[in-house]
Amino acid sequence: MKLYFHPASTTCRPIMLFAAENGITLDTELVDLFTGAQYQPSYEAVNPNHLVPVLQDGDFRLTESSTILKYIADKAGSPLYPKDLRERARVNERMDWVNTQLCRDLAYGLVYPQILPNHKRRSDEAQDATVQWGKERTQGWLKILDEHILGAKNAYMCGDAMTIADYFASAFVSLAEVTGSDFSAYPNVKRWLGRMKSLKNWKQVNETIDGFAASLKSNPMVAA
Question: What is the pTM of this model?
Answer without folding.
Answer: 0.97
